[in-house]
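We give the entry.
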Amino acid sequence: MLLLAVLFQALAMPAGAQAVSDQFDRGSGERRIVYTADGSRDTRKPVFTFNAHFVGQAVAMSIDVAFVSAGDGEAVPRSRFAGCHDIAWWIDGRPQATARAVHHGEVIDGDMVEMIDQEVTLEWIDAVAAAQSVRYRVCRDEYLLTAGDLRGFATVAAKLRNARMSSAAPAQQKEAATAPAEVEYKGMNWRPKHPSLFGSGK
C-alpha cells in the first residue's frame, strides 16, 4: 500500500518535479526518507522512487520502479515485466553490482501497475549522489537519471549520513554509561599493626 501511495503521488506531480520527504514517528521511533524522481507523463517511462526505512539502528533501503500500462476499457493489459525484471546499473559508465529485483503486478481501475523493487546499500547511495551520469536498464529497456534526480540523491545521501550519526550517538552514550569504571592499582598499601606477630621485623 505504501508503494501504491507513493506511485499515485508521483503521478500527480507536475512533469520535471521531484520531492524528498523525511518523516519521523515519535510514537514508534520509526523514520522514513523517501525520494520521488522527476515526474513524467510518458507511461512508457517508469515512476522511480527511493525509500529508506529506519527502525532503531536498522535501516532497509530500496529502489522502486513502477510502470503503468493503460487499459483500453475492454481488456486488461498484459504484464510487461513479470518474466524479465532484472535492474542493471551503470554509474559514470561503470557497472554496479546490485541485489536481485522483485516484481509485483496489480490491476487497478483497468490499468496494469507493475512495481519492481531492488534493495540497495549506503555505498550505492553515496556513489549515485557523487556521480555525473547514472543509467539503468530494466529487462531490455534503458533509462537515465536526470540532473534533478542526481541532486535529489545528494540530498538523500546527506539525510542518511545525519540519520546514521544520530542513531549511532545514543548507542555510544549507552556504551559509555555501562562501561566498567577503571580502578587504578597502586600496589599493596596495607601494613600490619603489630610487626612482631609476623616475625622479628629485621
About this structure: Strands lie at 19-24, 30-36, 47-55, 58-69, 87-91, 94-96, 101-108, 111-119, 134-138, 141-144. The longest strand covers residues 58-69. The helical segments are 2-12, 122-129, 147-178.
